[in-house]
Design the sequence.
């Protein structure tokens, strides 16, 4: 559908984060709202703004059905482009959806975090969320094989844990105001080729939204190491949480279960 175009995008938490050139294009669209979830802009080859659109996101009417939402988005995009002279191109084959690769050889370069949510009143969050997080040197150091049991703070796993939150809390920026908790990393034996460890404990999350939404997560991770070094081979874990969804006034209206799966490679 977008094949005639050179497509680029920018994503940020606030308008203040916009680079100058992005801000110039965004301003030319004349959006009145300060907070815009999604904005589409079509430019000509000279960078002149031709059309702009804030697509309506209506999970209530579409019952959170990602297929219906996709069709509705396509309709809105067609309306936006109606009348523009576009190049004629053959439709390309349907692209195959692939997950981000977070391994090079035997060493994980990161983890994938899958978020899934239980059925809820408005059927929000029905489309699973997948985040890819790089494995930093600090994470490798924190997760080195434990000769003896040792404690980790939840903040030591912040790159992972800050991704475990419900999208569309709306008035926040999707950030964590607080991550607390004490985790234990201990050896879990070995076999002919590998050594193992278990990391578990409870984590308290607090979001940056006005309601200060907070929830408790039960984290359990199995780590696999090479037999003769502290190098990580695989990471597989789960974090189980239940958060309270606030209404427009910030009052909790229902409890929704959120499960995060953490993996460095399928096995």
Sequence:
């Amino acid at each position: 559908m977008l094949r005639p175009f050179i497509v680029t995008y920018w994503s940020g938490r606030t308008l203040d984060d916009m680079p100058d050139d992005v801000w110039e294009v965004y301003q030319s669209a004349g959006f009145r709202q300060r907070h815009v979830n999604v904005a589409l802009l079509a430019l000509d080859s000279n960078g002149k703004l031709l059309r702009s659109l804030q697509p309506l996101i209506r999970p209530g009417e579409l019952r959170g059905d990602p297929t219906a939402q996709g069709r509705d988005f396509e309709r809105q995009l067609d309306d936006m482009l109606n009348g523009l002279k576009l190049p004629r191109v053959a439709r390309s084959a349907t692209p195959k959806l692939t997950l981000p690769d977070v391994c090079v050889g035997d060493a994980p370069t990161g983890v994938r975090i899958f978020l899934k949510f239980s059925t809820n009143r408005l059927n929000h969050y029905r489309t699973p969320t997948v985040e890819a997080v790089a494995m930093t040197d600090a994470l490798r150091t924190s997760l080195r094989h434990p000769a003896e049991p040792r404690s980790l703070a939840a903040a030591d796993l912040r790159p992972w844990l800050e991704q475990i939150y419900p999208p569309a809390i709306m008035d926040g920026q999707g950030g964590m105001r607080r991550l607390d908790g004490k985790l234990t990393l201990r050896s879990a034996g070995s076999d002919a080729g590998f050594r193992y460890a278990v990391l578990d404990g409870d984590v308290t999350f607090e979001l940056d939204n006005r309601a200060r939404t907070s929830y408790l997560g039960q984290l359990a991770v199995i780590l696999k190491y090479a037999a003769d070094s502290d190098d990580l081979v695989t990471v597989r874990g789960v974090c189980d949480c239940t958060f309270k969804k606030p209404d427009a006034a910030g009052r909790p209206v229902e409890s929704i279960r959120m499960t995060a799966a953490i993996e460095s490679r399928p096995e």
